[in-house]
Amino acid sequence: MPELASKRIVMLTFESVYTKKVGGLAEVPPRLGWALKELGFTVEVFTPSHGVVDACSNPIFVVEHASKYCISLVETAKPLHVVAGGGVLDDPVVYSPTRLLEKSLAFAVAARKYYEASLRQSAESTIFHVHDWHSLPALIALNALSVEAGLPLSFVYHVHLLSKAKIPLEALCREAGICGDTLVRGLHGVKPFSYYYELSQGFAEKLAALVADIVVTVSRGYAKSVERAMGPSSWGRVDYVPNASPITWNDVRESLRKAGVKNPRSRSSRLSYRRKLLERGFADLQVYWSSSEVEQRVARLLGDYNLDYKKPFGGDGPLVFSIGRASKQKGFDILVKALDELTLLIPRIRVVLAAAPLEWDYEWLKWLVEEAKVYEDVLRLIPGFIAREDAIKFYYAANATVVPSRSEPFGLVALESMAAGTPVAASRVDGLADIVLSIEERGVKGTGVLFEPGDPRSLAHKLATLVEVVEEAYKGSRRGLEIRHSCIKRAEEFSWSASAKKATEVYKKLEAAHQVV
After folding, report:
1. Cβ-count burial of 275 within 10 angstroms (0-12 exposed, 13-18 middle, 19+ buried)?
2. What is the pLDDT of residues 268-325, one digit of tens each?
3. Cβ-Cβ contacts under 8 Å for 343 (sequence gap 6 or more)
4. Number of Cβ within a 10 Å radius of residue 117
Protein backbone atom coordinates (compact mmCIF):
# COMPACT_ATOMS: atom_id res chain seq x y z
CA MET A 1 0.00 0.00 0.00
CA PRO A 2 1.40 3.44 -0.86
CA GLU A 3 2.61 5.46 2.14
CA LEU A 4 0.23 8.35 1.55
CA ALA A 5 -2.66 9.79 3.49
CA SER A 6 -4.65 9.93 0.25
CA LYS A 7 -5.10 6.45 -1.13
CA ARG A 8 -8.17 7.24 -3.23
CA ILE A 9 -7.59 8.64 -6.71
CA VAL A 10 -10.36 9.92 -8.99
CA MET A 11 -9.41 10.52 -12.62
CA LEU A 12 -11.62 13.15 -14.28
CA THR A 13 -11.40 12.91 -18.07
CA PHE A 14 -13.41 13.59 -21.23
CA GLU A 15 -11.97 10.51 -22.96
CA SER A 16 -11.39 6.87 -22.13
CA VAL A 17 -10.85 3.78 -24.24
CA TYR A 18 -13.76 2.26 -22.33
CA THR A 19 -16.19 4.98 -23.44
CA LYS A 20 -15.10 7.28 -26.29
CA LYS A 21 -11.66 7.67 -27.85
CA VAL A 22 -10.62 10.61 -30.04
CA GLY A 23 -6.88 10.77 -29.42
CA GLY A 24 -4.11 9.70 -27.09
CA LEU A 25 -5.83 11.18 -24.01
CA ALA A 26 -8.24 8.22 -24.00
CA GLU A 27 -5.38 5.85 -23.16
CA VAL A 28 -3.95 7.65 -20.18
CA PRO A 29 -6.53 7.84 -17.34
CA PRO A 30 -7.56 4.17 -17.48
CA ARG A 31 -4.04 2.80 -18.10
CA LEU A 32 -2.40 5.02 -15.50
CA GLY A 33 -5.31 4.44 -13.13
CA TRP A 34 -5.01 0.66 -13.40
CA ALA A 35 -1.26 0.81 -12.77
CA LEU A 36 -1.92 2.95 -9.68
CA LYS A 37 -4.50 0.43 -8.52
CA GLU A 38 -1.85 -2.29 -8.76
CA LEU A 39 0.32 -0.16 -6.47
CA GLY A 40 -2.43 -0.24 -3.84
CA PHE A 41 -4.51 2.86 -4.55
CA THR A 42 -8.28 2.89 -4.83
CA VAL A 43 -8.91 4.32 -8.29
CA GLU A 44 -11.91 5.24 -10.38
CA VAL A 45 -12.36 7.14 -13.65
CA PHE A 46 -15.16 9.73 -13.90
CA THR A 47 -16.10 10.54 -17.50
CA PRO A 48 -19.04 11.66 -19.68
CA SER A 49 -21.04 9.00 -21.48
CA HIS A 50 -20.92 10.73 -24.92
CA GLY A 51 -23.90 8.51 -25.75
CA VAL A 52 -21.84 5.31 -25.51
CA VAL A 53 -23.24 4.29 -22.12
CA ASP A 54 -26.93 4.70 -21.30
CA ALA A 55 -26.30 6.03 -17.82
CA CYS A 56 -30.00 6.67 -17.15
CA SER A 57 -31.06 3.05 -17.74
CA ASN A 58 -29.60 1.84 -14.45
CA PRO A 59 -28.33 4.87 -12.50
CA ILE A 60 -26.74 4.74 -9.05
CA PHE A 61 -27.29 8.49 -8.63
CA VAL A 62 -29.45 11.13 -10.31
CA VAL A 63 -28.70 14.85 -10.51
CA GLU A 64 -31.70 17.12 -11.00
CA HIS A 65 -30.44 20.31 -12.58
CA ALA A 66 -31.56 22.27 -15.63
CA SER A 67 -31.31 18.83 -17.21
CA LYS A 68 -31.43 15.43 -15.57
CA TYR A 69 -27.98 13.84 -15.29
CA CYS A 70 -27.50 10.21 -14.38
CA ILE A 71 -24.48 8.48 -12.85
CA SER A 72 -23.85 4.81 -13.56
CA LEU A 73 -20.97 2.36 -13.19
CA VAL A 74 -19.01 0.41 -15.77
CA GLU A 75 -17.56 -2.22 -13.48
CA THR A 76 -16.01 -4.23 -16.33
CA ALA A 77 -13.68 -1.33 -17.15
CA LYS A 78 -10.20 -1.29 -15.67
CA PRO A 79 -10.31 0.51 -13.30
CA LEU A 80 -13.95 1.10 -12.36
CA HIS A 81 -15.54 3.83 -14.51
CA VAL A 82 -18.18 6.19 -13.15
CA VAL A 83 -20.07 7.55 -16.15
CA ALA A 84 -22.16 10.72 -16.24
CA GLY A 85 -24.92 10.81 -18.83
CA GLY A 86 -28.12 12.60 -19.72
CA GLY A 87 -28.70 15.87 -21.57
CA VAL A 88 -25.67 17.27 -23.39
CA LEU A 89 -23.44 14.63 -21.77
CA ASP A 90 -24.96 12.13 -24.22
CA ASP A 91 -23.89 14.18 -27.25
CA PRO A 92 -21.79 11.72 -29.33
CA VAL A 93 -19.46 14.47 -30.56
CA VAL A 94 -16.86 14.62 -27.80
CA TYR A 95 -15.42 18.03 -28.67
CA SER A 96 -18.25 19.74 -30.50
CA PRO A 97 -17.22 23.34 -31.23
CA THR A 98 -20.79 24.50 -30.53
CA ARG A 99 -21.55 22.45 -27.38
CA LEU A 100 -18.18 21.76 -25.75
CA LEU A 101 -18.44 24.49 -23.10
CA GLU A 102 -22.00 23.43 -22.31
CA LYS A 103 -20.88 19.82 -21.94
CA SER A 104 -17.91 20.83 -19.80
CA LEU A 105 -20.15 22.77 -17.41
CA ALA A 106 -22.70 19.94 -17.24
CA PHE A 107 -19.84 17.58 -16.41
CA ALA A 108 -18.86 19.91 -13.56
CA VAL A 109 -22.40 19.88 -12.16
CA ALA A 110 -22.60 16.08 -12.30
CA ALA A 111 -19.18 15.67 -10.67
CA ARG A 112 -19.90 18.16 -7.88
CA LYS A 113 -23.28 16.67 -6.95
CA TYR A 114 -22.17 13.04 -7.13
CA TYR A 115 -18.98 13.48 -5.10
CA GLU A 116 -20.67 15.83 -2.65
CA ALA A 117 -23.03 13.00 -1.75
CA SER A 118 -20.41 10.24 -1.65
CA LEU A 119 -17.60 12.17 0.05
CA ARG A 120 -19.79 13.67 2.78
CA GLN A 121 -20.59 10.12 3.84
CA SER A 122 -16.99 8.92 4.08
CA ALA A 123 -14.93 12.15 4.36
CA GLU A 124 -12.14 10.12 2.77
CA SER A 125 -8.98 11.95 1.74
CA THR A 126 -9.09 12.02 -2.05
CA ILE A 127 -6.87 13.22 -4.87
CA PHE A 128 -8.71 14.38 -7.97
CA HIS A 129 -6.42 13.89 -10.96
CA VAL A 130 -7.96 16.10 -13.64
CA HIS A 131 -7.09 15.75 -17.33
CA ASP A 132 -7.12 18.76 -19.69
CA TRP A 133 -9.23 21.92 -19.66
CA HIS A 134 -12.56 20.29 -20.51
CA SER A 135 -12.56 18.88 -16.96
CA LEU A 136 -11.29 22.10 -15.34
CA PRO A 137 -14.77 23.43 -14.40
CA ALA A 138 -15.29 20.14 -12.53
CA LEU A 139 -12.00 20.70 -10.68
CA ILE A 140 -13.11 24.21 -9.69
CA ALA A 141 -16.51 22.95 -8.53
CA LEU A 142 -14.92 20.23 -6.40
CA ASN A 143 -12.38 22.70 -5.06
CA ALA A 144 -15.24 24.93 -3.92
CA LEU A 145 -16.88 21.87 -2.35
CA SER A 146 -13.71 21.08 -0.40
CA VAL A 147 -13.67 24.62 1.05
CA GLU A 148 -17.39 24.73 1.77
CA ALA A 149 -17.62 21.31 3.43
CA GLY A 150 -14.09 21.08 4.83
CA LEU A 151 -13.42 17.93 2.86
CA PRO A 152 -9.84 16.60 2.54
CA LEU A 153 -9.49 16.95 -1.24
CA SER A 154 -6.49 17.86 -3.36
CA PHE A 155 -6.13 18.48 -7.07
CA VAL A 156 -3.65 17.55 -9.79
CA TYR A 157 -4.16 19.23 -13.15
CA HIS A 158 -2.75 17.15 -16.02
CA VAL A 159 -2.02 18.91 -19.32
CA HIS A 160 -2.08 16.64 -22.39
CA LEU A 161 -2.46 19.42 -24.95
CA LEU A 162 -2.39 23.15 -24.32
CA SER A 163 -5.34 25.15 -25.54
CA LYS A 164 -6.29 28.80 -25.83
CA ALA A 165 -9.66 28.12 -24.21
CA LYS A 166 -11.28 30.89 -22.22
CA ILE A 167 -14.11 30.07 -19.83
CA PRO A 168 -16.69 32.85 -19.34
CA LEU A 169 -17.38 33.63 -15.69
CA GLU A 170 -21.04 34.29 -16.50
CA ALA A 171 -21.44 30.76 -17.90
CA LEU A 172 -19.60 29.22 -14.94
CA CYS A 173 -21.96 31.00 -12.55
CA ARG A 174 -25.16 30.42 -14.52
CA GLU A 175 -24.60 26.78 -15.49
CA ALA A 176 -22.34 25.39 -12.76
CA GLY A 177 -22.91 27.66 -9.75
CA ILE A 178 -19.28 28.82 -9.70
CA CYS A 179 -19.70 32.55 -9.18
CA GLY A 180 -17.39 35.43 -8.30
CA ASP A 181 -18.09 35.14 -4.56
CA THR A 182 -17.63 31.34 -4.47
CA LEU A 183 -14.73 30.51 -2.15
CA VAL A 184 -11.96 28.35 -3.59
CA ARG A 185 -8.50 27.35 -2.43
CA GLY A 186 -5.62 28.44 -4.66
CA LEU A 187 -2.02 29.50 -4.85
CA HIS A 188 -2.65 32.48 -2.53
CA GLY A 189 -4.94 30.67 -0.09
CA VAL A 190 -8.74 30.62 0.18
CA LYS A 191 -10.15 33.52 -1.85
CA PRO A 192 -13.35 34.42 -3.72
CA PHE A 193 -13.21 32.80 -7.12
CA SER A 194 -13.25 36.24 -8.79
CA TYR A 195 -9.76 36.86 -7.38
CA TYR A 196 -8.23 33.93 -9.23
CA TYR A 197 -10.42 34.44 -12.28
CA GLU A 198 -9.22 38.02 -12.72
CA LEU A 199 -5.57 36.97 -12.33
CA SER A 200 -6.04 34.42 -15.12
CA GLN A 201 -8.32 36.62 -17.27
CA GLY A 202 -10.44 33.50 -17.66
CA PHE A 203 -7.85 31.55 -19.66
CA ALA A 204 -8.19 27.89 -18.73
CA GLU A 205 -4.50 27.01 -18.39
CA LYS A 206 -3.64 30.11 -16.36
CA LEU A 207 -6.66 29.49 -14.12
CA ALA A 208 -5.70 25.85 -13.62
CA ALA A 209 -2.21 26.87 -12.47
CA LEU A 210 -3.82 29.04 -9.79
CA VAL A 211 -6.48 26.69 -8.39
CA ALA A 212 -4.83 23.26 -8.72
CA ASP A 213 -2.40 22.07 -6.05
CA ILE A 214 0.09 20.90 -8.65
CA VAL A 215 0.35 20.81 -12.45
CA VAL A 216 1.75 17.90 -14.43
CA THR A 217 2.17 17.22 -18.10
CA VAL A 218 3.33 14.28 -20.21
CA SER A 219 7.00 14.95 -20.93
CA ARG A 220 9.97 16.97 -19.76
CA GLY A 221 10.08 18.84 -23.06
CA TYR A 222 6.41 19.82 -22.95
CA ALA A 223 6.71 21.00 -19.33
CA LYS A 224 8.62 24.01 -20.61
CA SER A 225 5.79 24.85 -23.03
CA VAL A 226 3.26 24.48 -20.21
CA GLU A 227 5.17 26.88 -17.96
CA ARG A 228 5.36 29.46 -20.75
CA ALA A 229 1.62 29.18 -21.41
CA MET A 230 0.56 29.26 -17.76
CA GLY A 231 2.83 32.11 -16.77
CA PRO A 232 4.69 32.94 -13.54
CA SER A 233 2.13 31.25 -11.27
CA SER A 234 3.27 27.88 -12.65
CA TRP A 235 7.03 28.41 -12.50
CA GLY A 236 8.61 25.64 -10.47
CA ARG A 237 5.23 23.92 -10.04
CA VAL A 238 5.05 21.88 -13.26
CA ASP A 239 6.14 18.26 -13.09
CA TYR A 240 5.60 15.49 -15.61
CA VAL A 241 4.21 11.95 -15.63
CA PRO A 242 5.21 10.31 -18.91
CA ASN A 243 2.76 8.34 -20.99
CA ALA A 244 3.53 4.75 -21.93
CA SER A 245 3.37 2.74 -25.10
CA PRO A 246 -0.14 1.36 -25.65
CA ILE A 247 1.44 -1.66 -27.36
CA THR A 248 4.39 -3.94 -26.63
CA TRP A 249 6.49 -6.27 -28.74
CA ASN A 250 4.32 -9.13 -27.42
CA ASP A 251 1.24 -7.37 -28.84
CA VAL A 252 3.05 -7.05 -32.17
CA ARG A 253 3.98 -10.72 -32.23
CA GLU A 254 0.43 -11.77 -31.42
CA SER A 255 -1.07 -9.58 -34.18
CA LEU A 256 1.42 -10.90 -36.72
CA ARG A 257 0.88 -14.49 -35.63
CA LYS A 258 -2.80 -14.04 -36.52
CA ALA A 259 -1.67 -12.62 -39.87
CA GLY A 260 0.44 -15.72 -40.57
CA VAL A 261 3.90 -14.30 -39.78
CA LYS A 262 5.84 -17.07 -38.03
CA ASN A 263 9.07 -15.24 -37.18
CA PRO A 264 8.44 -11.48 -36.79
CA ARG A 265 12.08 -10.67 -35.95
CA SER A 266 13.28 -12.11 -39.26
CA ARG A 267 14.26 -9.53 -41.90
CA SER A 268 12.80 -11.79 -44.61
CA SER A 269 9.46 -11.90 -42.75
CA ARG A 270 9.28 -8.10 -42.65
CA LEU A 271 10.17 -7.77 -46.31
CA SER A 272 7.72 -10.43 -47.50
CA TYR A 273 4.94 -8.95 -45.37
CA ARG A 274 5.60 -5.49 -46.77
CA ARG A 275 5.42 -6.82 -50.33
CA LYS A 276 2.18 -8.59 -49.56
CA LEU A 277 0.67 -5.47 -48.03
CA LEU A 278 1.68 -3.12 -50.84
CA GLU A 279 1.03 -5.38 -53.82
CA ARG A 280 -2.32 -6.79 -52.71
CA GLY A 281 -3.76 -3.58 -51.34
CA PHE A 282 -5.76 -3.10 -48.16
CA ALA A 283 -8.98 -4.91 -49.07
CA ASP A 284 -9.39 -6.34 -45.55
CA LEU A 285 -8.70 -3.03 -43.81
CA GLN A 286 -11.49 -1.94 -41.47
CA VAL A 287 -11.94 1.84 -41.31
CA TYR A 288 -14.37 3.60 -39.00
CA TRP A 289 -15.39 7.15 -38.18
CA SER A 290 -16.45 9.19 -35.18
CA SER A 291 -20.01 9.62 -36.47
CA SER A 292 -22.28 8.66 -39.35
CA GLU A 293 -22.15 12.27 -40.56
CA VAL A 294 -18.35 12.07 -40.92
CA GLU A 295 -18.64 8.70 -42.66
CA GLN A 296 -21.07 10.16 -45.20
CA ARG A 297 -18.89 13.20 -45.82
CA VAL A 298 -15.85 11.01 -46.39
CA ALA A 299 -17.76 8.78 -48.80
CA ARG A 300 -18.92 11.80 -50.82
CA LEU A 301 -15.44 13.27 -50.87
CA LEU A 302 -13.81 10.06 -52.06
CA GLY A 303 -16.51 9.71 -54.70
CA ASP A 304 -16.00 13.26 -55.95
CA TYR A 305 -12.29 12.62 -56.48
CA ASN A 306 -12.61 8.96 -57.48
CA LEU A 307 -10.07 8.03 -54.81
CA ASP A 308 -9.70 4.42 -53.65
CA TYR A 309 -7.58 4.17 -50.52
CA LYS A 310 -7.59 0.35 -50.66
CA LYS A 311 -6.03 0.28 -54.11
CA PRO A 312 -2.70 -1.64 -54.31
CA PHE A 313 0.51 0.17 -55.16
CA GLY A 314 2.15 -0.61 -58.49
CA GLY A 315 4.77 -2.75 -56.74
CA ASP A 316 6.98 -3.09 -53.69
CA GLY A 317 9.16 -0.28 -52.34
CA PRO A 318 10.38 1.31 -49.11
CA LEU A 319 7.33 2.04 -46.97
CA VAL A 320 6.70 5.07 -44.78
CA PHE A 321 3.72 5.12 -42.41
CA SER A 322 2.07 8.04 -40.60
CA ILE A 323 -1.05 8.11 -38.44
CA GLY A 324 -3.09 10.56 -36.36
CA ARG A 325 -5.94 13.03 -36.36
CA ALA A 326 -6.45 15.06 -39.54
CA SER A 327 -5.62 18.34 -37.81
CA LYS A 328 -3.11 21.10 -38.49
CA GLN A 329 -1.22 20.25 -35.30
CA LYS A 330 -0.28 16.83 -36.68
CA GLY A 331 1.56 18.41 -39.63
CA PHE A 332 0.48 15.99 -42.35
CA ASP A 333 0.63 18.85 -44.83
CA ILE A 334 4.37 19.07 -44.16
CA LEU A 335 4.73 15.39 -45.07
CA VAL A 336 2.71 15.88 -48.26
CA LYS A 337 4.76 18.95 -49.24
CA ALA A 338 7.92 16.86 -48.82
CA LEU A 339 6.79 14.24 -51.35
CA ASP A 340 8.28 15.93 -54.43
CA GLU A 341 11.75 15.92 -52.94
CA LEU A 342 11.26 12.57 -51.22
CA THR A 343 10.40 10.84 -54.50
CA LEU A 344 13.57 12.27 -56.05
CA LEU A 345 15.64 10.89 -53.20
CA ILE A 346 13.83 7.52 -53.12
CA PRO A 347 11.94 6.99 -56.41
CA ARG A 348 10.25 3.75 -55.20
CA ILE A 349 8.95 5.30 -51.95
CA ARG A 350 5.48 4.27 -50.75
CA VAL A 351 3.62 6.41 -48.19
CA VAL A 352 0.55 5.33 -46.21
CA LEU A 353 -1.15 8.09 -44.22
CA ALA A 354 -3.99 7.18 -41.85
CA ALA A 355 -5.58 10.55 -41.02
CA ALA A 356 -8.74 10.41 -38.92
CA PRO A 357 -11.09 13.30 -39.79
CA LEU A 358 -12.76 15.41 -37.13
CA GLU A 359 -16.35 16.61 -37.30
CA TRP A 360 -15.39 20.28 -37.40
CA ASP A 361 -12.36 20.16 -39.71
CA TYR A 362 -13.77 19.01 -43.05
CA GLU A 363 -11.74 21.47 -45.16
CA TRP A 364 -8.48 20.06 -43.80
CA LEU A 365 -9.51 16.56 -44.87
CA LYS A 366 -10.57 17.85 -48.29
CA TRP A 367 -7.11 19.31 -48.84
CA LEU A 368 -5.50 15.98 -47.94
CA VAL A 369 -7.79 14.11 -50.36
CA GLU A 370 -6.95 16.54 -53.18
CA GLU A 371 -3.23 16.03 -52.55
CA ALA A 372 -3.65 12.25 -52.32
CA LYS A 373 -5.16 12.33 -55.80
CA VAL A 374 -2.16 14.27 -57.13
CA TYR A 375 0.31 11.80 -55.58
CA GLU A 376 -1.78 8.70 -56.21
CA ASP A 377 1.24 6.67 -57.38
CA VAL A 378 3.10 7.04 -54.08
CA LEU A 379 0.52 8.01 -51.45
CA ARG A 380 -2.46 6.20 -49.93
CA LEU A 381 -4.64 8.34 -47.67
CA ILE A 382 -6.77 6.30 -45.27
CA PRO A 383 -9.38 8.88 -44.18
CA GLY A 384 -10.53 7.43 -40.88
CA PHE A 385 -9.64 5.54 -37.74
CA ILE A 386 -8.13 2.08 -38.07
CA ALA A 387 -8.01 -0.70 -35.49
CA ARG A 388 -4.89 -1.04 -33.40
CA GLU A 389 -4.13 -4.45 -34.92
CA ASP A 390 -4.15 -2.90 -38.41
CA ALA A 391 -1.93 -0.05 -37.24
CA ILE A 392 0.50 -2.61 -35.83
CA LYS A 393 0.74 -4.29 -39.24
CA PHE A 394 1.61 -0.99 -40.93
CA TYR A 395 4.18 -0.16 -38.26
CA TYR A 396 5.74 -3.59 -38.71
CA ALA A 397 5.89 -3.42 -42.50
CA ALA A 398 7.26 0.12 -42.63
CA ASN A 399 10.87 1.19 -43.00
CA ALA A 400 10.02 4.18 -40.85
CA THR A 401 7.12 5.99 -39.23
CA VAL A 402 7.02 9.75 -39.72
CA VAL A 403 5.57 12.07 -37.07
CA PRO A 404 5.59 15.58 -38.61
CA SER A 405 3.72 17.36 -35.79
CA ARG A 406 3.99 21.11 -35.33
CA SER A 407 3.78 20.44 -31.60
CA GLU A 408 3.47 17.16 -29.72
CA PRO A 409 3.22 16.96 -25.94
CA PHE A 410 4.34 13.34 -25.89
CA GLY A 411 4.07 11.30 -29.08
CA LEU A 412 2.34 7.95 -28.56
CA VAL A 413 2.65 7.17 -32.27
CA ALA A 414 6.44 7.28 -31.95
CA LEU A 415 6.35 4.81 -29.06
CA GLU A 416 3.93 2.49 -30.85
CA SER A 417 6.19 2.44 -33.88
CA MET A 418 9.28 1.69 -31.81
CA ALA A 419 7.43 -1.09 -29.98
CA ALA A 420 7.06 -2.72 -33.41
CA GLY A 421 10.79 -2.30 -34.04
CA THR A 422 10.33 0.51 -36.56
CA PRO A 423 12.38 3.71 -36.24
CA VAL A 424 10.81 7.15 -36.33
CA ALA A 425 11.41 10.36 -38.25
CA ALA A 426 9.96 13.09 -36.04
CA SER A 427 9.81 16.85 -35.69
CA ARG A 428 12.26 18.16 -33.13
CA VAL A 429 9.50 19.38 -30.80
CA ASP A 430 8.41 18.89 -27.19
CA GLY A 431 7.91 15.24 -26.21
CA LEU A 432 9.10 13.84 -29.54
CA ALA A 433 12.58 15.24 -28.91
CA ASP A 434 12.55 13.40 -25.56
CA ILE A 435 11.39 10.06 -26.95
CA VAL A 436 13.21 9.67 -30.28
CA LEU A 437 16.96 9.08 -29.92
CA SER A 438 18.81 10.34 -32.98
CA ILE A 439 20.90 7.79 -34.90
CA GLU A 440 23.07 10.71 -35.99
CA GLU A 441 24.10 11.19 -32.36
CA ARG A 442 23.82 7.67 -30.96
CA GLY A 443 24.47 5.41 -33.93
CA VAL A 444 22.78 2.01 -33.68
CA LYS A 445 21.63 2.88 -30.15
CA GLY A 446 19.38 5.49 -31.74
CA THR A 447 15.73 5.01 -32.62
CA GLY A 448 15.23 7.45 -35.50
CA VAL A 449 15.97 10.95 -36.77
CA LEU A 450 14.77 14.43 -35.83
CA PHE A 451 14.04 17.07 -38.46
CA GLU A 452 13.30 20.77 -38.21
CA PRO A 453 9.62 21.47 -37.42
CA GLY A 454 7.54 22.69 -40.34
CA ASP A 455 10.36 22.17 -42.86
CA PRO A 456 9.42 19.78 -45.74
CA ARG A 457 12.98 19.74 -47.10
CA SER A 458 14.47 18.81 -43.72
CA LEU A 459 11.80 16.11 -43.37
CA ALA A 460 12.55 14.67 -46.82
CA HIS A 461 16.31 14.45 -46.36
CA LYS A 462 16.28 13.10 -42.78
CA LEU A 463 13.52 10.61 -43.60
CA ALA A 464 15.31 9.45 -46.76
CA THR A 465 18.46 8.77 -44.74
CA LEU A 466 16.51 6.70 -42.22
CA VAL A 467 14.59 4.77 -44.90
CA GLU A 468 17.82 3.85 -46.68
CA VAL A 469 19.50 2.66 -43.46
CA VAL A 470 16.59 0.29 -42.79
CA GLU A 471 16.41 -0.79 -46.44
CA GLU A 472 20.06 -1.83 -46.27
CA ALA A 473 19.11 -4.33 -43.57
CA TYR A 474 17.18 -6.30 -46.18
CA LYS A 475 20.46 -6.59 -48.12
CA GLY A 476 22.38 -7.99 -45.15
CA SER A 477 23.54 -4.87 -43.28
CA ARG A 478 23.38 -5.26 -39.50
CA ARG A 479 23.06 -1.54 -38.84
CA GLY A 480 19.35 -1.41 -39.64
CA LEU A 481 18.68 -4.55 -37.60
CA GLU A 482 20.44 -3.14 -34.54
CA ILE A 483 18.44 0.08 -34.81
CA ARG A 484 15.23 -1.97 -34.89
CA HIS A 485 16.32 -3.78 -31.70
CA SER A 486 17.13 -0.42 -30.08
CA CYS A 487 13.61 0.76 -30.91
CA ILE A 488 12.00 -2.16 -29.10
CA LYS A 489 14.22 -1.62 -26.05
CA ARG A 490 13.45 2.10 -26.00
CA ALA A 491 9.69 1.50 -26.10
CA GLU A 492 9.99 -0.91 -23.16
CA GLU A 493 11.37 1.94 -21.02
CA PHE A 494 7.94 3.62 -21.15
CA SER A 495 5.60 1.42 -19.11
CA TRP A 496 2.47 2.28 -17.18
CA SER A 497 4.00 0.86 -14.01
CA ALA A 498 6.87 3.35 -14.34
CA SER A 499 4.37 6.15 -15.00
CA ALA A 500 2.37 5.16 -11.91
CA LYS A 501 5.50 5.32 -9.76
CA LYS A 502 6.20 8.82 -11.08
CA ALA A 503 2.59 9.82 -10.36
CA THR A 504 3.02 8.53 -6.81
CA GLU A 505 6.02 10.85 -6.41
CA VAL A 506 3.80 13.73 -7.52
CA TYR A 507 1.15 12.79 -4.98
CA LYS A 508 3.80 12.67 -2.26
CA LYS A 509 4.79 16.23 -3.17
CA LEU A 510 1.25 17.30 -2.34
CA GLU A 511 1.53 15.89 1.16
CA ALA A 512 5.07 17.15 1.68
CA ALA A 513 3.80 20.67 0.93
CA HIS A 514 0.94 20.14 3.43
CA GLN A 515 -1.57 20.57 0.63
CA VAL A 516 -3.64 17.51 1.51
CA VAL A 517 -5.97 18.54 4.32
Report:
1. middle
2. 999 999 999 999 888 889 899 888 888 999 999 999 999 999 999 989 999 999 999 8
3. 349, 378
4. 12
